[in-house]
Amino acid sequence: MKHLNAITISIGDELLSGKTVDSNNAFISKQLDLIGIPVIKKIIIGDTAQDIKDSLDWAFTQADVITLTGGLGPTHDDITKSVLCDYFHVGLKLYPDLLENLKDRFARRGFKFSEANTSQAEYPDNAALLDNPFGTAQGMHIKHNGNHLFVMAGVPREMEAVTTEQIIPILSKLTQTSISKIDIHSIGVPESTLYEFSKPVLDKYSDLKIAYLPKQGMVTIRVSYPSKSPHEDQKFKDEIFGRIRNLKPKNIYGRDEEVLPVLIGKLLKKNRATVATAESCTGGLVASLITDISGSSEYFQTGFVTYANETKMSMLGVQEQTLIDHGAVSEETVSEMLSGTLSKSGADYALAISGIAGPTGGTEEKPVGTVFIGVAHSEHQNIKRFQFGTNRILNKEMSAFSALNLLRLLIEETNQ
Amino acid sequence: MKHLNAITISIGDELLSGKTVDSNNAFISKQLDLIGIPVIKKIIIGDTAQDIKDSLDWAFTQADVITLTGGLGPTHDDITKSVLCDYFHVGLKLYPDLLENLKDRFARRGFKFSEANTSQAEYPDNAALLDNPFGTAQGMHIKHNGNHLFVMAGVPREMEAVTTEQIIPILSKLTQTSISKIDIHSIGVPESTLYEFSKPVLDKYSDLKIAYLPKQGMVTIRVSYPSKSPHEDQKFKDEIFGRIRNLKPKNIYGRDEEVLPVLIGKLLKKNRATVATAESCTGGLVASLITDISGSSEYFQTGFVTYANETKMSMLGVQEQTLIDHGAVSEETVSEMLSGTLSKSGADYALAISGIAGPTGGTEEKPVGTVFIGVAHSEHQNIKRFQFGTNRILNKEMSAFSALNLLRLLIEETNQ
Fold first, then answer.
1. I need a labelling partner for A20 at 20 to 30 A (CA). Which of A157, A268, B336, B399 fits?
2. What's the pTM?
3. For the structural domain made of A179-255, what CATH number should be given?
4. pLDDT tens digits, residue range B233-243?
5. What is the ipTM score, two decimals?
6. CB–CB of B18 and A40 under 8 A?
């Protein structure tokens, strides 16, 4: 057991040219930081053998743990494996089961398997392989003079899976400090406000590391702390989540993996209830978020994307006069969308959204970013007006997540 | 005039811990790349004197141009200027006009000016100052043994202004080449296959730099080349895109900003046509992708999310017997979804998807990742069976983009 430090190396011309922002390194740093392994330097280099070797030399003299990301794939710009063989004076080893998987994969998709692809089943023979659930390029763990080199593909989803499922468990065993964390999710509160009202609670504890992570218009508070026993960690998490949540129960909705679509699923399943959606400006995003969760067919059967006024009338029974009198973006229209959704779908809960996603289409009375969001359960409706910004994609996301939060509150309220 | 290269150095503990993603470096790289100065390495280091000096030593031996970002400000972790004085053996020079500005600034905001802030008007005396319009920390240009060091604050807006308004004009005078790029987008071809069939075409040109960038199950080929005149660049882009596209016109669908939802929008607008969607396993993702594009209400009015069999029947008129005989995930069901979508929506084109997103729900005959995707235009239908993998989110994305590509082909075919 000792204190370890780390250097991250990223390979890729697209990172050097600035076309791609290197978010991989930030992800790896955060994960290492959580188990008490600080990253002391990061370097980004091109797809050239000499640069890779030089940076390995450079890194091995300074750090205990080195991560190397990118350059694993079948095309000519992917040279990492041959450089590693050269660097460590080892050969490539063929993994027959990986080759079979690869051939199956090509066959299933109806592609010819060419010999060039065999290299995807070959790895330096001093490497232990780390399972990559999302791609053909396996991760590698190479021990060298007491140091640890981890090599991964640069595709974010693959890098994230290999890091969290393979590398962190290996390193956790080697490091002294073990850090636990809890993510506390909020919606509808600016980062600075969240900071101000949570500070008095968090200041009461020593040894906490706090980060505010904004994403898709929401903010997650990440609290890290030296872990003790599983039991004490759990107790601490429950306590701190309870205290923060009680400050703003409408806005602090969940913790850790309980993001809104997951939480909605839990609540609906628990109450054996279903939901149907009617979306105008979000254009299907809410339905897509709900169905990102495995098992969502249990509680989600029907979604209407009623982008046009005609569709709001024909699919949901919104009255033409309502649209004429109040416009499509109005409380009245959303109210009729809710009633129509409940009656046409037979679901227990309905959710309806109509707004101006932008960047054009605003008026003085209803500027871009004006969105009416409603949720309903039998006779009861709750409709709110929101004012978001001018970015179309962000407006869609904020509307979708705000709708899910209103639905969360309604389900909790009706099942107390 | 000569060929220059560059190294970027970023200073900041928050970058190392992963709390902040280093987007500054990507910005600087892009700007340098455009005037033909490739960034060959990037390094991110902590707020320590030794690390700053070591990386300057390291960078000066490898590159002509070095940018150093961060560590300029009044707080304790901002040490860059004193390190520079030490490194170059020079003193600090006070700029009285900057000091006056600083005092004015404090007064205007009602703050007391303390002596600690005087340092913000002092700079190493071998530096030429570069005006920073958005902050008090001026940029610096230091010539050293024929190389150029540029030092900037790390605040993105300030860094961007100093880079584009000061550094790029200085360097443009020193450099010869400028680089152009084209992105060529493909779908449904593995990276290795794309590489193999495009290689003979790309090998005919000298001076090209090629990268294969995978994302959401699709691959983009990025071709960079020394730019000549705008007219010749355009001619070259048209030529190379035409040649690559002709190799696999079904799979190579667009270039640069023409990703699939954008391209679908262009094609539908051009033909004054509309599309409606019926989604089962993608759960609204296709509709959401289509409506990510501003102006999509012109060609998209209606989307059905028919997750349950009941909804496929009630909303789209799918026959119960079809579902019993062939199952929801079948060509027959998708065919009836298409007919129902066209008749219920009145749209010119319909798109329908039914599949098993996973990770559970597969059978031997129809394993997880089996998806039937269909597109239709009046009497004509085209339905294909796809076999994707086991990851739910990736299956949704691949299904959605494959559906948009089939729609693209059908629109092109019916409007020849």
1. B399
2. 0.75
3. 3.30.70.2860
4. 999 999 999 99
5. 0.76
6. no
